[in-house]
């Protein structure tokens, strides 16, 4: 599923599929109705699964983390320019195993700046990241 991340992030349901890998049943990204539907399988899962939910979630997060972090490295700029995509990028950076801290993410923003064509591209991307992550502004207006 993570191989398709560059395509999935563009739709609401695709983003939720990716978010479920790293933040399952998070009220931040899933409605109470969606969580209730997912909870309907808990009774069956408790009878058939040998693992605790937290162990299973950690294993899934660990397995998905590397490719999701690669997705952020390759497509993070494009995704961060979209409202839903920026939430996905933020959540990957916060929740993925081996994810970087905010300081490293800010550093990667500066590295990405070298690939931007104009100053306007740089400022727009920085603004989106700051709004989502509440980072201090690295420049003055």
Helix percentage range: 55-70%
Structural category is mainly alpha
Number of strands: 0
H and E string: HHHHHHHH
Distance between the termini: 41 Å
Q: Main β-sheet, in a few words?
A: none
What does this structure look like?
This protein is mainly alpha-helical. The chain has one domain (2-133). The protein is 70% helix and 0% strand. The chain has helices at 5-8, 12-22, 32-39, 42-48, 53-80, 83-95, 102-113, 119-133. Helix 7 (102-113) runs antiparallel to helix 8 (119-133). 19% of the residues are buried. Mean pLDDT is 76; it is low at 100-104 and 106-141.
Outline the secondary-structure elements.
Elements: H1 5-8, H2 12-22, H3 32-39, H4 42-48, H5 53-80, H6 83-95, H7 102-113, H8 119-133
What is shown here, in short?
The chain is mostly helical and 141 residues long.
List keywords for this structure.
globular, 141 residues, 8 helices, disordered C terminus, 70% helix, mainly alpha
């Amino acid at each position: 599923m993570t191989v398709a991340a560059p395509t999935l992030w563009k739709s609401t349901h695709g983003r939720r599929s990716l978010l479920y890998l790293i933040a399952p049943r998070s009220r931040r990204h899933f409605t109470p109705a969606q969580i209730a539907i997912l909870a309907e399988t808990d009774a069956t899962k408790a009878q058939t699964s040998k693992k605790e939910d937290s162990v299973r979630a950690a294993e899934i997060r660990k397995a998905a983390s590397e490719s999701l972090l690669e997705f952020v490295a390759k497509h993070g700029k494009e995704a961060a320019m979209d409202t839903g995509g920026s939430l996905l990028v933020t959540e990957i950076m916060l929740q993925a195993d081996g994810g970087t801290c905010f300081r490293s993410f800010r550093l990667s923003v500066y590295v990405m700046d070298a690939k931007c064509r104009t100053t306007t591209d740089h400022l727009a991307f920085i603004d989106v990241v700051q709004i989502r992550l509440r980072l201090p502004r690295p420049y003055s207006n």
